[in-house]
């Protein structure tokens, strides 16, 4: 927490997150006829309680556009005819909800339709692979955040980040109300929005339209809630850290081998961590506590206070806000989480202010804020240094020296993340068939990392570049290389990126068959990084850069809807300018002799980097074969600007150190060409099967190349040298709620191959003296088989069996999640060659079960929900990482078989995944 206060205050005053590059509205369309099927011309269809409505054309057709996602009641009427009301029609972002009406003569009277199949089992207008999860579904799922929701979808693999359909991490755009919550300096996404603020989440894994840019593998589109006509709110808490509540003494529910305990045990047999390393290392804890609150409704100042003073603002003003607090592992002060230095404390929230001065105009002021204090944990001891100096004196077995005890946090990084977005949106209805959206916003992401100094403050405060070059960190490790003390090698890190966006979109329903949408967008980036890496051998690597790239895009798409065919066709143009004019003309002679990176004439013959542009055609078809079967196909080109860190980090050509890395502002875009074909079949009113096959051809991925600038001196430069391909099939079976039961299950078969699994693979191979591979191999996240299954049993209010006139079981619910994944690949041990087989072996499979049992109680419009939530229900020991493959394959017990112990000789604590944990929770809503 280094600059929290000022930005936090600003964010609370004006929180904004607006539609920067994603759809946030949907459409209702249909036909109004008489009892004989004849079209009724001039019939009126209105959304009850709103000003939205339409009249039918000569064919009896109507449409209503620009609708926020949610559930609506509609009413159709006509002079001389009765009325018909449809209750519970669901609107989904970027989709058309079909709602037909049949009107009888006025003498017959009015009728009411209850829409039980709210979204339709088959969304006929959808040509892409999209999973839509509503707020009601999220509320019953055993999930802690949007990330958990996404990981349950077909094609999503969590392996050091989200990989969608075999793509690299960082290839999925995450947007909230259209704002990209992605830091261009690292392409990390911020997915910490409070779940109480979410109205709908869409996960598009293939075939997304031309309006979506700068993403190769998928889109996560989250639409937040708006304030309603009356006040609603919620207050909830869950966790297992009862010590933080002052009602226990160091106990938290869960952990292997027992149903509750106070410390983390992570051996395969439930053995305590202390046995792995003696008594010099502190216990770790899986304690977690979370609280969340939300409130929405009329904005009180303009709607109540000012009118009471005789001032009428003449507008409908509503507000919604949510805030969440999360403490994990005792927080940063406690520092003991699942792994040492992984504890954290986080605040995040959002506010949306909606102003409607008239029925045709809507203004949105909304925003998001997150602040996280945490540590630096990495499974790689060289980078993580999570084995800290111990509290007791310690005798180093290599030197025999006694190391005096220190605060266990000494030498471990403190990290602070701060993200916020602010902006403004205007939605103007131009006619009954057209509307315009104008949006501006700014998204800021910062990260700061410091090393605690035992003498107070942080190591390196006030240091100049020369000071860092003379800095010698103290590090000690024991004979097996496991326990470490002293300063982490990443001594200092500052990063800040600001993305300013302006955008205009126009949507026009030209006629019943064609909806045209087009838009233009401009982005301006202000990105900064200053970092110091105090590597081994006295090498100091520094990065200090500030870049101002800019980008522009334009698109047009046409959604053509006919009874026998739906077509989504679009074309997107993207332009990106790194805005960098200090790049050497000759990469074999990049710098002037006798100069340093701080000198203005350091670069030899500097030139400006050229701008990049790209055209992305995209088309999708959906063809209803029968009333219960739909065939769909998509083809598209998807363009993404590389990670800014790969473009600008080290681009000042600081060639000091033994293995310098140089950023490349001249990197070209990465590109994916993707195809998919699938069929959907509806078995009955509530059950559907979707089978989709896909193929992706990926080119221009970033890797590294060694460039010599003397006979013996070289640096590694980022280049567009990698490629890959992915093919697979997804099978999704879904049953909507019926007779208290719903379920969904998806199975993904996938093969992901490529030249490299990381932009740093060539660099690591050069450093190890290995041959740079040209052939493709299985990527690190290649998972051949994946299954996600969800089962939900739920008795709604006023339903279920009754005893003595009372329904005691109403509100009872049980949600189960089961996940299976085949083993990820790894390099076999004992390959005595400079050209080893890459990822030729496989981890064991993983399997996990999560359960959430709840009971709801009601009093009028107020509800109370109490629940117990069990993660890893069967306490399975899933291997998370193999820390030493030679040890894993060794036969230590002499039984003639490999022991397959992933913990290495020193029993490293992150070998196995999290074990059983039990959380308790309570939610109050009104």
In brief:
Helices cover 7% and strands 48% of the residues.
Protein topology:
Elements: H1 4-13, E1 26-34, E2 44-47, E3 53-55, E4 61-67, E5 70-77, E6 84-91, E7 96-98, E8 101-103, E9 111-114, E10 129-134, H2 135-140, H3 146-151, E11 156-158, E12 162-164, E13 172-176, E14 179-180, E15 182-183, E16 188-189, E17 198-206, E18 218-224, E19 232-239, E20 252-253, E21 260-261, H4 274-277, E22 288-298, H5 300-308, E23 316-328, H6 331-334, E24 344-358, E25 361-375, H7 381-384, E26 394-395, E27 402-403, E28 413-431, E29 434-451, H8 465-469, E30 475-477, E31 484-486, E32 490-509, E33 514-534, E34 540-547, E35 550-562, E36 565-577, E37 583-584, E38 606-607, E39 612-626, E40 629-640, H9 644-648, E41 661-662, E42 670-682, E43 687-708, E44 714-738, E45 741-754, H10 761-768, E46 777-778, E47 785-794, E48 812-821, E49 825-826, E50 841-842, E51 846-859, E52 862-871, H11 885-889, E53 917-925
Parallel strand pairs: 1-7, 1-8, 6-9, 13-18, 41-44
Antiparallel strand pairs: 1-4, 2-3, 2-5, 5-6, 10-17, 11-12, 13-14, 15-16, 17-18, 19-22, 19-53, 20-21, 22-23, 23-24, 24-25, 25-28, 26-27, 28-29, 29-32, 30-31, 32-33, 33-34, 33-35, 35-36, 36-39, 37-38, 39-40, 40-42, 42-43, 43-44, 44-45, 45-46, 45-47, 47-48, 48-51, 49-50, 51-52, 52-53
